[in-house]
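In this section we walk through a basic example: taking a raw amino acid sequence and producing a predicted 3D structure, encoded as discrete structure tokens. The instruction is simple. Fold the sequence below.
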Amino acid sequence: MANPSSPVPFLDQIFERAGKLLQPPAWMVEEMQRRLVLTLNHVLQQEPEAQARLKRQAGRVVEAHWRVFSVRLQATAAGLLDLAPVTQNPDLTLTLTDESPFALLQSAIRGEKPGVRIAGDVQLAAEVQWLVDHVRWDLEEDLARIFGDAPAHAVATAGRRMAQALRGFVGRGGAAPSSGTPGGPSAPGQAGG
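The resulting token sequence is shown next.
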């Protein structure tokens, strides 16, 4: 439960109102979904086992929901993904149960999976779960292709350090790191108080 003085409930309300008032045009939603498909396929092409699993599910449709957002993805015969036709019923429906974007972000930073309500084909759900558990984007490798090995490694290292710091911050509930003594840090040669 959120602390009443926390800005999160207030920001959640703003996000909800903005989501209702600022509906992007259909062409923009479709373009964003196509970009998502391109990114997912780029990652899948680096994982032959993932592609083999998706080939076995060719034609099957997974629909994902969060708040007012949704996307329908269809497995292709090539072991990749495409946008599914709206006329085809989904074989599997996944709905994120936590509506707060900030709670989702905190869960992601802690390395936790979000709550998901699942309806539909159990075998397809198992394949999707395998993909979630085993497919990872090697961003450092992609950066190395563009910028070279050393800059890519530096960016990836900085990203890992930032993620680690965020996890520590979230794990402490936003508190500053502990100094080890109740009264704060002591000067050398002094006893802590």
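Looking at the output, two observations stand out. The helical segments are 8-21, 26-44, 48-55, 101-109, 122-134, 139-147, 149-171. DSSP finds seven helices and five strands in the chain. In the next section we compare this with other chains.
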